[in-house]
Amino acid sequence: MNRFKILWVDDEIDLLKSHSLFLEERGYQTTPCSNGQDAIEIIKSNNFDVILLDENMPGLNGLETLQEIKNYKPLIPIVMITKNEEEQIMEEAIGSKITDYLIKPVNPNQILLSLKKILKNRDLIAEKTSRDYQKEFGKLAEKRNNLKTHQDWTKYYEKLIYWELELEALEDSSILGFVVATPATTHYDITYKIIKSGKHVLV
């Protein structure tokens, strides 16, 4: 079974070892990080399922770190953890598209519940999107043989791009592998060239 990978960013991360152990015992792989700048460097070369991010840190604070992380990994779920209950801070964090918001002190079960909720929702969305794509792929394969006009090819190409973006948003390599293997996607380059040339050609 794959272990979910969690990056935990908190300037007091050494005090949270018992929380990390609690998650490790339940199948989560946690990577500790004590500051925002290191967290940004870590996410540049590593993939995580969820980031737990402290809001009040020296140097780059949580909101600043959040913005930088979103520049590199805009779709990764982030749980903001803070002692600050000010409405302005909450609104700014929510406006920055955090996935969940926890108020310190947090106990391990609160964190576990948040992670389960996030990952279950992600899996449900991935499953539905994959099913929808496979249904749509059959229709696309049929349509490909009946494309005649420049407008037909443009609409077809737009549909391919739509599904590519939908599946990339899931960051699921197994599903993306299915897309790459399907005959429809071999027509990306050909379709694009036809649209650019304006020729009404069947392939």
Return Rg in Å: 22 Å
Poorly predicted sequence stretches spanning 5 or more consecutive residues: 172-197, 199-203
User: The CATH topology of the largest domain, please?
Assistant: Rossmann fold
CATH architectural name of the largest domain: 3-Layer(aba) Sandwich
Sheet with the most strands: spatial strand order: 2-1-3-4-5
Describe the main β-sheet briefly.
5 strands, parallel
Annotation, overall tally of beta strands? 5
Which structural category fits the helices and strands? alpha/beta
Q: What characteristic shape results from the CA principal axes?
A: elongated
CATH superfamily of the largest domain: Response regulator
- The count of helical stretches stands at 8
* Pattern of helices and strands: EHEHEHEHEHHHH
The CATH C-level name of the largest domain is Alpha Beta
The averaged pLDDT comes out at 79
The percentage helix is 55-70%
* C-alpha end-to-end distance: 43 Å
Count of discrete structural domains: 2
Report strand %.
5-15%
How would you characterize the overall build of this protein?
The structure is a single chain. Helices cover 56% and strands 13% of the residues. The protein has 203 residues and is an alpha/beta fold. The chain folds into two domains: 4-106, Response regulator (Rossmann fold, 3-Layer(aba) Sandwich), CATH 3.40.50.2300; 124-197. Strands 2-1-3-4-5 form a five-stranded parallel beta sheet, sandwiched between helices. The longest helix has 37 residues, at 108-144. It is elongated and about 65 Å long.
